[in-house]
């Protein structure tokens, strides 16, 4: 009875939520097909065209609107996100592994790690830039100072994901491997890691997307124009004039994110089958 | 048993968790090629003891010796002691064959691929898993998983295998079959098994000797029939789950309990005065019957059919349940009227009496 009333309401609510979530993206998508180079970033659509997409890839004749200065920034951001992903995930797995046993000061260490995602990014960025410039005296770069702030920011996410995964991990399979004469490192490689791999994937996804998207830390810690990451480069174009090429670029990056999510989904699906086997085994116990 | 023939020895091992003693100066020894069963209720420390021997836990005090060597500080993977888990702990991402070959492939000693294949196949054949080699461990039954767990351990040819309630996850039918197989496999391999169990029937049936553990202490060790017929303390008698226990007072060779006063020619020394009579030694008689021995008035509640015997439950005036077992080989069971009073009696010299006066 209750569900007959509640279910439609909840369905409506979810629909509204999704609309709200994807609404901006829809508007963006529509406007990205605006006519160019004269069409502006607003309705109505003068004429449907793919001009702005072509402009991003430099396929249009030169016009008064400069192409987006995002090429190098995109490469920098992708490399940075990859570096951050690898570092944060390795750190996250290792420290979550350490937290499987209580050690002296573990609570303090826990909060110190998690603090990285709590402190305002602007402060971390500013602090890092001051530290680099005035205290240590090194030049800021996207692959040095900005990289450090990105790791400090994404590592707690990877750590928390791995902590949750390892919390539910039944250590008896590791003990079984030890009792067969297999040393702890090989046991980790051959038993633990394959079994926690779904979690590692999630941690990687978190670290990568958070870094790719990062703005306030990069703003201060990345250095000059030749060190700009993608979000900084995009923001930079706002200060002049907004053209639909930004929207076209937004659509492309969103599609890239979906592709990334699909890869994640496929890999997850493969490893979840493994996890299900483990769960079955635990049910017996 | 001398130290020379002992395969392992646990010497005064103590282990506490947050102030609670799980093991309290435990001494234990097992010989080469022996089946030792370790009986204890949950929380008695039996799993902890096994984990200390395996090297998964470090004892607070005491030493562990294996093949004459002190291995107390040695990590688990360098000990060469097999361990079979209650939940089997199979590697869920590997096939049956890879599970069994795991130790040979990744263990400390280098074994050639050909040798690995040969030994793996031999053990798989021995435990009766031929034809299942390439299945995932989620595609086989509980009993088969148990065999994989055993095969995986035995392929390493350990001199000692620790089994932590290995039959606990199996259904009764399978448990019976696996009991026989475990014994047979062990005899063929000539390995020492230390089998931990909470089931008294399993402990008595499987062990060459039985060790009873209670609250972190070994309270009796011996041959199964000795432990069964002469439990060393009321606690042992209680775990064996075959005795009605009555508390009372033992004074100058006379035990006074709820059933009256009985002369006790021989008593075992214990901290409490307890009178124990086996379930199948008690007889129920009509209330008017004349008895020479102890007589206990009790109300019949219910009975349970156990296949080869019938268990009858009676309740005394003070609410204690007394069990009376009737073996069907001795004839048809008596029928009792529910809520009727009966007189329970037994031959006094079949009782086991514990008390401060005992020797």
Give a brief description.
The complex is a heterodimer of chains A (285) and B (359). Chain A is 74% helix and 0% strand.
Low-pLDDT stretches of chain B are none
Helix content of chain B: 10-25%
Integer tally of domains of chain B: 2
How many beta-strand runs of chain B?
22
Largest interface: A-B, 28 and 37 residues
Shape of chain A: globular
CATH uppermost class of the largest domain in chain A: Mainly Alpha
First-to-last CA distance of chain A:
39 Å
The main sheet of chain A comes to: none
Structural category of chain B: alpha+beta
Tally of individual domains of chain A: 2
Per DSSP, what share of the residues of chain A sits in E-state strands of 2 or more residues?
Answer: under 5%
Number of strands of chain A: 0
Oligomer: heterodimer
Instruction: Write down the Rg of chain B.
Output: 24 Å
Radius of gyration of chain A, Cα only, in angstroms?
Answer: 24 Å
For this structure, what is the CATH class of the largest domain in chain B? Answer: Alpha Beta
Major beta sheet, strand line-up of chain B: 6-7-8-3-9-10
**Which homologous superfamily in CATH is the superfamily of the largest domain in chain A?**
MetI-like
The CATH architecture of the largest domain in chain B can be named as 3-Layer(aba) Sandwich
The total count of helices of chain A amounts to 11
